[in-house]
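agent> call fold_tool(seq_1)
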Amino acid sequence: MTFCNILEASQAQSFVTRAANPVRCQLLLLLSDPVGCQDLQRQVDAEKEKNRSLEDQYKHRVASFAKREKTTLNKIDALEKRLTDGAEHDDHSKRMEVIGNMHGSVVAGLECIQNNTAKILQDQEKDLMRAFRARLKEVSKDLEDQRSRKGEHSTELQARHRRVVAELHEAQELAQTFDKKNQALVAENQKLQERLRTRDDDRQALLRELVLARQQAARLKAQNGKEGAATGDVFPPVSNQTAPSPKGSSRSFSQKQVDQAKLQQTHNKQFEREMAFREAAKKLKRMVEAERRTVRALKQQQAELMQHRTELEVLLKQSLDDVKAEVLRHRMAAEGQTGPAMGVPSDHGPALSTVSVHELTAQDRERVLELLLSQQRVVQLLYSKTFAHPQLPPISPEPVEMRNEPDFTWLGDILPPEDFA
């Protein structure tokens, strides 16, 4: 047994003797024992853990209690507020009832005012209609008086109308005549183009025949040269007459020489035929150029005609739009519309499209003709259509040099260069 153990035992005995409480004595006994001390320490830790858990539970319960207490206080305050606001709510209800009664009286007064206003407007409308009818009767009477006073001018207006209608018919007939002439010129142009195509085909066929003739002439020329070299005759290759012999003694010809002379004459005929082909080709060229000039003149005349006709159509359309705008303004004025509808511009498409040409009266159509003929450009166009008849440009004759001096340069594109040697 060690000294420490003896000291601990003595201390424990002294503690036991000093302790008056039995529990204290037990604790002292447990402390004196090391194993019991460890058990006691574990128990103390367990108690501390329980104490902490109890403290946590206590804090949680305190917080929940404070929350419930707060909500309860809020409910109590609300109930107290409702209890105190009861009298004020009764006063509010009374005031709302008074306001409702006042609103009903105001609505009833407004209904009465609306009814009175409607009656007043109806009376004013009746008065305006009576005044309008009276004014309309007065205007109608004035118009009848003016027509009766202007009766002496009606003959002049009718004569002017007949003159304008006659001019219009003449312009229409002139337009129809030009249209027929245009159609006839178009048909003639088509025929001339067809003839030109056929002449081009004939020219190509003649050129092919000319090439074949040239080839045959070259072949015969080569054959003649070979036979002349073989027989040794003295005739020149390109001569229409037989040359005399160098000695001048013999004038007789053999059969071979006669055949060669015939071949040379055939060659000359081929050359004449070639020249005729060239003359025909030149004539065809001149005819083609003349036809082209005629076609250009006709096209220019047709373009001028279409331009003048288009200009007349535009001017007529403008006059018609002006009259339509006037008719539309009179119609809106008769319907009693004022403001922006009264000033309808002449180029207002959607508004003018409502007025059809068939709705125009005779006076409106006379107004269209007056507006059309009042323009100086229309009179100029009609005058130029009526009295101006441009003639087609004459076909200029070919110069004498072109007829007398044939041009063979165009054959260079067809025949090889060695054929001209």
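agent> call fold_tool(seq_2)
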Amino acid sequence: MEKLTEHIIDEWLVLKCQTGDEKAFSLLVKRWHPKLTMQAYRHTQNIEAARDIAQESWHAFIRGLNNLHDPAAFRVWIYRIVSRRSVDWIRKVTRERKVLSSIEAREELNPVSIEPGSTLLQQLKETLKILPNNQRIILSMFYLDSIKVREMAAILSIPEGTVKSRLFHAREHLKSIYKQYNYENE
């Protein structure tokens, strides 16, 4: 289906949910739950936490449904809920464990482990794991979810210029890591 058709279906389902239609809610969950879980996972890198966050986000959706006046804003609104809950989870875990900064911890805990003969996609996935959280999320949203810069800015509650800057720096960081491990020569 085209993206436009997908958005129209989502808007219609949101409107039906606002009238209390349980079937519409079930369909919306079926369509969006995997996306929300993946978005939470990109933030947390923890599948159990991602599942919990996605579930909690649906509860927040139900509680705030009547405050959503523009069904076309559903996509940005639900992603923002997931992002905020993910950030809250990260803060909680960081506080509990008193870990190092996310960049240092990520480099120590997730070193690049590329097997000889691995595919380009596998190499990129391994490389993405060691990027700082904000860079990994920006790249994933832009390239994997095809979310526009304007929508990312709304989801993350940051200016569009900041999104563009983070995209640039994330790409540059990804290139430098890739070159460091000589992937381009394989």
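agent> summarizing second result for user.
The chain has two domains: 1-98, 101-186. Residues 68 and 74 are 8 Å apart (CA to CA).
agent> awaiting next instruction.
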